């Protein structure tokens, strides 16, 4: 039997044009499915980047807020209401809003302003690259992320990225950079600028209610989800744990945007293209080798053995094509997507799912040939 499978591989490699067409079609299908999926996952990760840039166990928002990128102002007194709930260790106010910053050359740029509690700076960025975040307590002080520091962002007009000690304006007020941090990119692409809560309120246009969110922590040993439920019940606000808020945000994206459908259409199209190209090419390959297959059948090879030979041929080109496609996807992630544009998030479990999809494509392609071989008459080898 091993000898028969070796013959099958020699038959496959003997027809180089169709072999490379099969490999190329499956490689393109694998590339299309995996590259689009990883870009899609990267884009989805942007929608929940707030929760990783400002780490907290419980996020409390206004009762009509459905996802983390949405802001509806609350009353300042809501902070004390949350603090009074049984099981809450502490709670601090948070301001977030999109403001207009003016660069040194006079251009206006939109920024994502984050106001942290002045006393604790709770929700501070996880990784500081330069400066000292404790200096946010000084007047007119801000910490910017690496995106904000870029020459084409807040550094426009300086001919270089912003550095610690540089200044720019936010709504006609001076902002002095005291630190640069590393953050995950925001869904809307705005760079992050951190300030103390009181300072952020001075930068923002005045409104009757300015509080955006409340960050809270449960007392040690208590279940976070249970404390969040207590906050919602006692205050009438919405309290989310991080997994709950991530789930709510992703649900909102799926329900209210066309992004998932667009990417899923491309992923499905990649699968269909793979089936179409490999199925047609492999069927043509079988037709051209009917005499060889007929000769094997005349020598006693059964339909089961011939079907196994076709499956070996199909799976061989499938795994080679899948390997090439994944290699091209990885190359895309290391080069084109290296700077974060477009977003790219590689997930190992999907690689196995994609490989399963390619194997299914190969099985479907082989099925066309197997049906023809099952009806094959051994006498075909004697016909002129």
Description:
The protein is an alpha+beta fold and 384 residues long. The chain has 2 domains: 2-45 and 258-382, no CATH class; 75-236, no CATH class. 50% of the residues lie in helices and 17% in strands. The protein is built from 12 helices and 10 strands. The chain has helices at 2-14, 16-47, 49-53, 78-83, 146-149, 197-203, 224-235, 242-256, 259-288, 290-298, 303-334, 348-374, and strands spanning 58-61, 88-102, 108-116, 127-131, 141-145, 167-170, 173-182, 192-196, 213-218, 238-241. Helix 1 (2-14) crosses helix 11, helix 2 (16-47) crosses helix 11 and helix 2 (16-47) packs antiparallel against helix 12. The radius of gyration is 30 Å and the shape is elongated.
SSE layout and pairing:
Blueprint (H helix, E strand, L loop, with lengths): L1 H13 L1 H32 L1 H5 L4 E4 L16 H6 L4 E15 L5 E9 L10 E5 L9 E5 H4 L17 E4 L2 E10 L9 E5 H7 L9 E6 L5 H12 L2 E4 H15 L2 H30 L1 H9 L4 H32 L13 H27 L10
Parallel strand pairs: 3-8, 5-7
Antiparallel strand pairs: 1-9, 1-10, 2-3, 2-6, 2-9, 4-7, 5-8, 6-7
Helix pairs in contact: 1-11, 2-9, 2-11, 2-12, 9-12, 11-12
**Biggest sheet features:** 6 strands, mixed, barrel
Order of helices and strands: HHHEHEEEEHEEEHEHEHHHHH
DSSP helix count? 12
Strand content: 15-25%
The main sheet orders its strands as 2-3-8-5-7-6
Mean pLDDT: 85
Summing up helix and strand content along with how strands pair, one would put the structural category as alpha+beta
Low-confidence parts, pLDDT < 50 over ≥5 residues? none
Q: Outline, from the CA principal axes? A: elongated
What's the helical proportion of residues?
40-55%
Q: Distance between the terminal alpha carbons, to the nearest Å? A: 30 Å
Number of strands: 10
Question: In the residues, how many domains can be counted?
Answer: 2
Task: Provide the gyration radius in Å.
Answer: 30 Å
